[in-house]
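are you around this afternoon, could really use another pair of eyes. what follows is a protein written twice so to speak, once as letters and once as structure tokens for the fold. i want to understand how the tokens follow from the sequence so walk me through it. anything you notice is useful, everything is just below.
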Amino acid sequence: MLAELSTLLAPLAAAIGYSSYKARQFERTHPNIGELTDIGYLINAVHVPRPDSADLPPLVFLHGASGNLLDQVGAFLEPLSGRAEMLFVDRPGHGYSERGGPENNLPSGQADAIAALMDKHGIEKAIIVGHSFGGAIAAAFGVRHPDKTAGLLFLAPATHPWPGGIDWYYHAATAPIVGWIFNHAFVVPLGLLKLERGTINVFHPNPRPVDYVAKTGPSLVLRPDTFHHNASDLARLLSYLKVQSPSYARITAPTVIITGDSDAIVWEHLHSQGLARDIPGSELVKIRGVGHKPDYLATDVAIAALEKIAGQPRDLQAAARAAEKRLAHQRA
């Protein structure tokens, strides 16, 4: 009996040991570049102080599911250098941020965490930029903290209920007891098998930047606790949006929604068009031939949107057409 049990447990122990080793390796490869701030628990962020040359209000960037602050740093830090105070945030439980309390299982709790972090950095008001899942948090921020919202920029946002559900492994990751075993033994080997194809699919039908994986550290989400928090976010999102999305009509801040018409990850006809319908005075910018990463593929359009939100005259539809031509030329 003991021999049989040992035979079963030995491979599991080996898998857990391998996953622990790889998790430490992921952190050595992508060490923390941010600063930890105590808001009752530790939130990690890269803070760029306001430069003398600033022509934009403060900007707060929120990454999507399975991501960390390196994703938005890679898209926006250099192009916006010298133009604004910026805060690139590891959302609670992601990157190098602690999870905090159970309220952070929902976008509303994470929006409150962003507001508290802004207070710690002396940022009274900012344009909130949310990509994908970060869009749900940006929307919650606009509803819950209108006095801190100078504007909202949504990039391929996940903000409305959708038919269906989520992938099986997120359910496995959040299951009692089994979830701990799954996260500590199986997520790393399975995730490494899916990482290459997964990041390619996020950019589809556009090519993924050759240095994207090396620069943005998507492997950090495979760490057991981080994967559990990521799965918890996604497992609760649909029921949360069914209740909360009707409140978007209360948002009064200047709002721009940028989406690709070829996004197979977050359907633009439900989410982006839903936001444009629900937020009074918002502008929808749809870019043909772009998938789930307009932050990387149409960074210039996103920056033009920030400028327009800040009160500068910009024709975003013309900017989108110009981006389409550029991308078509690159594909050709």
Notes: The chain has a mean pLDDT of 96. The longest strand covers residues 42-48.
